[in-house]
Each structure stands twice: as C-alpha cells, then as structure tokens.
Amino acid sequence: PLRAAAALEACPAPAGNGAGPLAGLRFECLGDGSSVDLAAALAGRPALVNLWAWWCGPCAEELPYLQEYAQRAGDAVTVVTVHTDPNEANALSRLAEYAVQLPGVQDGSARAQAAVQSPPVLPVTVLLRPDGSVAKVLPQPFRSADEVAAAVEYHLGVKV
Fold this sequence. Notes:
The protein is 34% helix and 20% strand.
C-alpha cells in the first residue's frame, strides 16, 4: 500500500555494464521492490544521485526542487534518489507526503554513500559522468531547481 501511495517513477533500466564507484552495487527499487544495479541503470548518461533520509529536514526541503529539475531536464540528466536509512516505510510515506515521485532505491546500510566517499551528512548530491565516474560530491541542500541546474551545468556541462 505504501508503494502504491507513493506512486514513484520506475527505476531506470540497465543501460550498460556500469562503471565507477557504484559498479556492482545492487539496491531495492523503492517504486516496485525489484533489484537494481545502480551503475548499470545510470550507464551512458549524466546522472544526479541524491542521498537522503526520511528524518532529514533539509532533504525534505530540497526533494521538491530535485523533482522540478528532473522534469525540466527530461532525458538530458537521470535523477535518482538513494534513501540511506533502514526504514523504507517511512521513506515511502515521506515521498508521498512531499508529492515527490522520482525513481529511487533503498540503501539502509549507506553503501552508496561509502562508495562515492561522501561525508557522513545529508543531503548529499552526487553528480556522475556518463562513464560512471564522480564529477562532484555536493554535501549541501539545494534551495531551488535553478541552483540544481547551475550545479549540473558547471560540473557536468549539461545545460537545461
């Protein structure tokens, strides 16, 4: 019932073998419970990976801006969330409450955060190049979709 209420977008389908620090890491897709190799799902295109948790106030503020940016970016940049707390039910409830339907994965053990060498704070946005390498780790909340767009343009060269 929580998955249905959240009505999240499907996780990206594998687009290649995947490379970079997320290679080989599999996560549960929040939208349908399937298993996702995140690096393979993001392979071949620029990506924004947002690390967040249901209890994080700044995360709650920025998630709608990430949703707005994703709608603006379309296929130019893949936007995916990674919930880093073990409580998946709370994540689904929060996403439904925020009306954020971005594709996302559940990572209760913070493996993605460790893999990209992110500091232990939230929210964190990781910008990945099409080859899977990390362009930038941004341990900061975004305050608008325009701020997100500016960061993506500066670090990935994708203007939307």
